[in-house]
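In the lab's daily routine, each protein ends up as an entry in a very long ledger. A line of letters takes care of the sequence, but it says nothing directly about the fold. The fold becomes a row of whole numbers, each drawn from a learned catalogue of backbone shapes. The protein below has been through that process, and both of its lines are reproduced in full:
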Amino acid sequence: MFQIKAKLLYNKGIKENYFLCALEASKIALKASPGQFVNVRITDALEPLLRRPFSIHRIQGKTVEIIYEVLGKGTRMLSEKKEGEYLDVIGPLGQGFNYERWTRRYEPFILVAGGMGVAPLIFLAEKLRAVQSSKFKVQSIVLIGAKTKNQILCEKEFKQSGFKVFVSTDDGSKGFKGKVTGLLKRQLRTMNHELRTIFACGPRPMLKEIAQICARYRIPAQVSLEEHMACGIGACLGCVVNTTDGYKRVCKEGPVFQTDEIIWEQ
């Protein structure tokens, strides 16, 4: 974990209310793993006081990319930052995806992203691409869910990483009409019975349903939880989640957990 002053290389809108930001942060880039995050101080002023956590979206050499949606004062202020400004950044933080053992076993797998859940999965997809055989890549797919077609993020980037991509929209404006979990059920019914695993990120109700689906199909799965955080380093206990091994801190022991270790009924 490092605390650095990171130079803002670009901060550009990619869709309505969605921005892609690149930070010059070589120490963080060198150590980062898919599923980890950075904690960014938006301003030196007293408000907003707390840092904002962002999943590491992609590593490009010495550059750390994050993708975010403008939802409140903090992200609005971040969207107004200009190239050349500096941000106080702590990272990499948390425990990422345990993906290497699955690639060694040559199992097809599925990446499932709901809304802003695409953020950490691009980094994971690019890491997986680097270690997969070409045959294995064909067997693996990405499912992206959004409310409307205008909110579908990173479809092109996943395809460039060698994955077949399917999308779902709540309103049916593109792809499967309904939740991405419905699309997942449909895909599982059409896939063969080879061993596989699922990596997912999105809203908690989506992840809870994925856990239920995986239990039914006896598929191991890892999910990245989206929880409100205060300190981001495990000190304040503000982001705990109940697990089969007691309460764990999402910012420290997570944000990635196995679905069968989380107690979802809360």
